């Protein structure tokens, strides 16, 4: 049975979290200047002290690093409960760090838990879960996006070592990371999904270079938390390999699904916040002597946004439930992960634009944060695979359950075909009761020569 309910004990935790996020976490982003990645900036000692202090409050509540599920050795509450938590964190760049569930560290901790050696877990996973270090996941490249079959960054075997050479793009948090998990082509001639291998590269490895800092539209030039990085013949031992040789794609897929779900969960909170802003503005702003909330167009905008948000939230909760059943790697799980990935970008874009319009000149000004929200929404449509790619995958997996009609060249719901099909199905019942179709004034089809409609006998309307 699909179940999204929350027990009373956990509801108490959520109530505490709601107050904590609103009154202690969200104030940070209005006071501290940052280029989107300040929560990770270990060089800002004063700010780090504040972050650590708040992290300790979260740990005391037993809500720290709740993303890693119990079947991977973590202390998570499951994906459904994490949904209720993450939607509260969607409004704050600081929130996920203070709760120990920030990307890309969440996905990196998952693959370390699943594929890491005992030594890798001691060196990287435990400090990551404890919030002592940060990490980067480097798969996307300048020329090929996140297409794992088009990797130009290569890993060349040299005795007991590997030599990594090539560029990676939009490598979130690389400047503050202690290590980078990089996906490189270890055998460019192998079948497309068997070419790559994962490696763990320490941030201070000789030959590692940050080519340029890159951010969103709203970040200043030469700033931002998503650098272009380069591996200049970086040498690492084979013990730095994460997972089997040639199975980098498999390792990547195991983390990307969870990452996409976490983004979608946080997006729930962001979209609801935008709707709240619209509602507040609608009842507060007067035009023609009455609040604009009395205008039908405004009512429709808010109602449409609320309905779409409710539908989207249920979509995410259902996908989270599939994760709790450990079905994320099956056909239904993969289909729904792509569905929420495609849905989150569209609803965020649509609702941001509606909120801007409803706020008028305020919405377009730099005294509001709508520009940042729109940039984030568009980012969600491109990161971890563009929306069009995920829509295609949803369609592909959905259509697997359908077979082409071979009995007719007409649509299955053609009325006269269905009439004949219905007659065939109902005739035994009428015979049992000693009735005819005419007795009940039925509307039946009397002329169905099979050669006329290209039918196969016995398959009418199937």
Automatic annotation (TrEMBL):
Residues 18-132 form the Acyl-CoA dehydrogenase/oxidase N-terminal domain. Pfam families: Acyl-CoA_dh_1, Acyl-CoA_dh_M, Acyl-CoA_dh_N. Residues 246-396 form the Acyl-CoA dehydrogenase/oxidase C-terminal domain. It comes from the Bacteria. Its cofactor is FAD. Residues 136-214 form the Acyl-CoA oxidase/dehydrogenase middle domain. Keywords: FAD, Flavoprotein, Oxidoreductase. The keyword RNA-binding does not apply. The keyword Membrane does not apply. PANTHER family: ACYL-COA DEHYDROGENASE FAMILY MEMBER 11, MEDIUM-CHAIN SPECIFIC ACYL-COA DEHYDROGENASE, MITOCHONDRIAL-RELATED. Homodimer. Belongs to the acyl-CoA dehydrogenase family. This is Acyl-CoA dehydrogenase family protein. The lineage of its organism: Bacteria, Pseudomonadati, Pseudomonadota, Alphaproteobacteria, Sphingomonadales.
């Amino acid at each position: 049975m699909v179940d999204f309910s929350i027990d009373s004990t956990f509801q108490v935790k959520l109530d505490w979290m709601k107050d904590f996020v609103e009154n202690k976490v969200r104030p940070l982003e209005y006071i501290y200047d940052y280029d989107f990645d300040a929560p990770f900036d270990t060089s800002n000692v004063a700010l780090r002290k504040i972050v650590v202090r708040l992290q300790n409050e979260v740990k005391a509540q037993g809500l720290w690093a709740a993303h890693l599920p119990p079947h991977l050795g973590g202390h998570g509450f499951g994906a459904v409960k994490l949904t209720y938590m993450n939607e509260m964190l969607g409004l704050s760049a600081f929130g996920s760090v203070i709760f120990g569930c920030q990307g890309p560290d969440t996905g990196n901790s998952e693959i370390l838990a699943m594929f890491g050696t005992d030594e890798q877990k001691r060196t990287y996973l435990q400090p990551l879960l404890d919030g002592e270090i940060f990490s980067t996941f480097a798969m996307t490249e300048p020329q090929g996006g996140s297409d794992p079959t088009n990797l130009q960054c290569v890993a060349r075997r040299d005795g007991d070592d590997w030599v990594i050479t090539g560029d990676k793009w939009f490598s979130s948090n690389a400047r503050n990371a202690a290590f980078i998990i990089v996906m490189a082509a270890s055998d460019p001639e192998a079948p497309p999904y068997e070419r790559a291998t994962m490696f763990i590269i320490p941030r201070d490895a000789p030959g590692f270079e940050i080519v340029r800092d890159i951010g969103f539209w709203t970040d200043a030039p030469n700033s931002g938390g998503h650098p272009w990085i380069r591996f200049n013949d970086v040498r690492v031992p084979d013990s730095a390999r994460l997972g089997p040789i040639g199975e980098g794609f498999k390792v990547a897929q195991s983390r990307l699904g969870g990452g996409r779900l976490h983004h979608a969960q946080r997006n729930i909170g962001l979209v609801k916040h935008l709707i709240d802003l619209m509602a507040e503005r609608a009842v507060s702003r007067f035009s023609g002597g009455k609040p604009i909330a009395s205008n039908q167009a405004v009512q429709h905008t808010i109602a449409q946004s609320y309905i779409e948000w409710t539908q989207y939230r249920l979509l995410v909760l259902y996908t989270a439930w599939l994760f709790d059943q450990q079905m994320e790697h099956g056909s239904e799980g993969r289909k729904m992960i792509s569905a929420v990935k495609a849905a989150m970008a569209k609803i965020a874009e649509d609702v941001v634009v509606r909120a801007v319009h409803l706020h008028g000149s305020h919405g377009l000004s730099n005294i509001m944060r709508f520009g940042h929200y729109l940039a984030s929404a568009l980012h969600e449509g491109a990161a971890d695979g563009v929306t069009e790619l995920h829509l295609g995958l949803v369609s592909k997996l959905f259509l697997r359950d359908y077979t082409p009609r071979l009995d007719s060249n007409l649509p299955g719901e053609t009325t006269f075909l269905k009439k004949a099909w219905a007659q065939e199905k109902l005739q035994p019942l009428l015979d049992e009761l000693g009735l005819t179709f005419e007795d009940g004034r039925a509307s039946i089809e009397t002329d169905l020569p099979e050669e006329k409609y290209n039918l196969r006998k016995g398959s009418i309307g199937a």
